[in-house]
Amino acid sequence: MQARFSDRVVVVTGGGQGIGAATALRFAQEGARVAVVDLDCSEIAPRVALAVAGDCTDAATVGAFFDRVEAELGPVDVLFNNVGQSAREKGGPFVESDEATWRFVLEVSLLTTLRASRRIAPGMRARGRGRIVNMSSDAAQVGDAGLADYASAKMGIVGFTRALARELAPHGVTVNAVGPGAIRTRAHEQIKPEVLARIRAGTPAGFIGEPADVAALVAFLASDEARFITGQTILVDGGRWML
Prior knowledge:
By secondary structure, this protein is α/β, with parallel strands linked by helices. The chain has one domain: 3-Layer(aba) Sandwich (Rossmann fold), CATH 3.40.50. The protein contains seven helices and seven strands. The chain has helices at residues 18-29, 59-72, 99-127, 138-142, 148-168, 193-201, 211-222; strands spanning 9-13, 33-38, 50-53, 78-81, 130-135, 173-180, 233-236. It has a seven-stranded parallel beta sheet with strand order 3-2-1-4-5-6-7, with helices on both faces. α1 (18-29) links the parallel β1 and β2 (33-38). The longest helix has 29 residues, at 99-127. The mean pLDDT is 93.
């Protein structure tokens, strides 16, 4: 595999498993010094330069993590804002939902992205280079029933990506988002069966994707080859939603 990221520092939030772990490993295989933060980093820790167990919804934890990344590895060249989740077993019809669940989903799926980007973007702007890739979802485009809070948070990611891309484009920094559909992860299997069944049935490709499918796109958007792509949300969903 080509070393597109030799001597570059890459941060993956929520990189302990699933798509985050697959992407962290993809960057490491291509020569990057990868730092990961997640609630549980035990599986990924031996395979990356730095792995820190922590809650990305806690501002102090995030600040301390980035302090350590910069001190031990150097300035961040690539930020993949991967952390996030749906309401999972608490999900269901919006008319039966509660505000505490909305707030959790918005916090973990939207505010964590703003928080990490706010910390890293000024340095990228000052250095005149950098890549930020945000995690949205095709649920934001489709508007899946039973995922109103998650779809709201992930569409918020789309708007944030566009706005930040416009701000940073003149400074050599690109900001894009990826929107996975049905991807085979442990977290995905925790979505209510009836919601998951609808998603699978509506995927024209006829199969469920793998975390590596998303990792490949993230790596491309973070590379020099994608220098003229910014403000975009690219779906990885087997054709379930076509823009």
